[in-house]
User: What shape does this take?
Amino acid sequence: MAQRTQLVDTLKASLKAHGKTYADVAAALQLSETSIKRLFSECNFSLQRLDDICKLINMEISDLVRLMNESSTVHLSQLSEEQEGEIASDIALLLVTVCVLNRWTLQEIVDYFHLSETRCIRYLAKLDRLKLIELLPKNRVKLLIAPNFKWRENGPIQQFFLEKLEADFFNSRFNKEDERLIVINGMLADSSNAVFQRKMEHLAKEFDALNSDDAGLPLEARNGVTVVLAMRRWAYGLFDDIRKK
Assistant: This one.
């Protein structure tokens, strides 16, 4: 019963994340909204009805079970300096790591990149040893990262991206429909600065939640997206020559 309740809770969270209400479910199942509420409160679904609800949000029952298992596992929130260094030192391992964290399958990685299946499996075994994933039978992957997982501040991974990808990332006019660059400047008290940083953290959590919700979609329906949120006390070096020291 406990597992059934957990599965229904996961289903409710997934519906909410996709903007679906009890009324939407009632329309899809051709039942009254009262009946739907009763089904959810009693956690009493047939497999057919559960499948119909999953289809409403483009999911399979297996996707729902995976999300339930991920939410119930004790997850890793951060790697050690040495573990990050091991990943950052091998560009192919880093690539596989990023793909896996974005829920690519082994076959998708092999199909998309010039990496052999044997090499990918070797990298997956390394990630299993690092406790980022659990490598399951048939080379399926179970993520072991927490929702708040992040790379170390100024750690090897973050330094790699700053040193290698900064110029490439900003080599854009950010004028496409799926791009946006906002640069703002002002003067804030320390208390206001702290408030804004908390809002940045909240926005990052929303991004992680959306990324998790979309994990059940096919690979071709998802696009790689990188968001940079940065804030620091800084004055334009352009004015150094006329600034009083």
Notes: The beta strands are 133-135, 141-143.
